[in-house]
Amino acid sequence: MNLIDMHCDTLMRLLEEKKGQNLENTDCSISIPGMKKAGTLAQFFACFTCLEDFMETDGYEGCYRQVLKMVSLMEEQLASFSDTLAPACSFDEIMENASKGKISAVLTVEEGGIINGKMKRLNTLYEKGIRLMTLMWNYENCLGYPNSRDAEIMKKGLKPFGVEAVERMGELKMLVDVSHASDGTFYDIIRYAKGPVVASHSNCRALCAHPRNLSDGMIRALADKGGIAGLNFYGAFLGTEKDSKLEEMTAHILHMIRVGGKEFPAIGTDFDGIEGMVHMDIPRAEGMKKLWEALRKKGLSEEQLELIWCGNALRVLKELD
Ligand SMILES: [Zn+2]
Fold it and tell me: What is the pLDDT of residues 29-50, one digit of tens each?
């Protein structure tokens, strides 16, 4: 049961309120013991930064510094736990790590605003091992517009600099992540991206009408481009507000298969980025087997389950080689 989880916010926790903890010894949802139990092949670690924290100071420049701090934190963790954890920038590296019995850590950025109009920063991020960038979080940035309940904002797409950045990401071989984007930005990315596009942690709008989720049209457009979406465990995106339950998780996966095909769904838990839940059927990586079992009971084949767990993500990662 090899798992690839395309999104967690564990680095943010370890940098902030869980300072002093580490990936081996933590009460975070993602930990080394938890990943071992889950059979994790690769965990994507997001360097997430929130504009609000730097609104009073230097905005996205502060966000950029915050991301660099998270990259350093990841480097420290990789150095401390090199027996079990190793960095990976490609399909081949993930496979090589696995052959040595090591879990791969893939670095990502969640907030493309850190580029802040400086295209060269994409190169710097690439050199630091970043292989996926979520173009925006919930604020407008130099690239484009975020998801919103405001129909006007939702229509707005990529800015000219955003189009250039998406093209450059394709040349660099960095995954473009549409999660958090406005619908307009989503369709612009589909139009301009030269390389692979993913929704690292987004669910289905047909089942839960949240602007963070993908409409059926978006699922089809993303699937047609060879992209994938990672199932998000956050209740508000599953349609259960303060609960995160297997029943809805399986429903979203089944809908993704129905609309996007069997090569579309993947996993993007959002672990350690989820707040305010009263109950979670799977609160930590350790519990991932429960989802496998629940999906098996819904009639999914072993082959389909393997595609969801890692096959679909690996196919996209192969395009980076
Ligand atoms: Zn997110």
Answer: 999 999 999 999 999 999 999 9
